[in-house]
Specification:
The chain is mainly alpha-helical. The chain has helices spanning 2-22, 27-41, 49-76, 81-97, 103-121, 124-161.
């Protein structure tokens, strides 16, 4: 009986993680912590170590894709490899200067690619195309995050219910 209360409460607490995945918050990491707490409280009986491993791998993949999707988009937008490097530098600096999770990184990445491409080509249209590519890549990554968050919730329910 206690497990079902934990399971229902954890499932309810996972739902905001889906919405956090749309916003610049680490929604899937939040969801993983909730699932891990539920598994720990249950003694890893219903949610086993293997189940948590699958959810952990999903979380790690999503965090990685979230970080690199903008850089892949910049490359697709025509950015030079040096601009990609400056995009990474901008991502790190933006994350420190603007301490809002993900948002600072996106702004920093965009500005890093834009400044580097403009400096390299002196063509604001090419620089803007590459920087917008980083934004579109980030947007695609957000769609991936949203899909993965729903999959995480479904997997949590399937793993925990059976």
């Amino acid at each position: 009986m206690a497990y079902y209360l934990i399971f229902i409460l954890a499932t309810i607490l996972l739902i905001p993680g889906i919405f956090m995945s749309i916003l610049p918050f680490p929604g899937l990491l939040y969801m993983f912590v909730i699932a891990l707490a539920a598994a720990f409280l249950d003694g890893f009986v219903h949610l086993t170590g293997f189940d948590m491993g699958v959810l952990g791998i999903l979380t790690a993949v999503v965090i990685f894709v979230d970080l690199v999707s903008g850089l892949i988009g910049a490359k697709a937008g025509g950015a030079h490899w040096s601009s990609i490097v400056w995009g990474i530098v901008g991502l790190v600096i933006g994350s420190v200067v603007i301490p809002v999770p993900i948002l600072g990184g996106i702004i920093g990445m965009f500005l890093g690619v834009l400044a580097s491409e403009w400096h390299r080509t002196r063509d604001i249209r090419k620089a803007n195309k590459a920087a917008l590519g980083s934004f579109w890549g980030w947007l695609a990554g957000t769609g991936f995050k949203l899909t993965a968050s729903v999959a995480f919730l479904v997997l949590f329910i399937v793993f925990g219910a059976f």
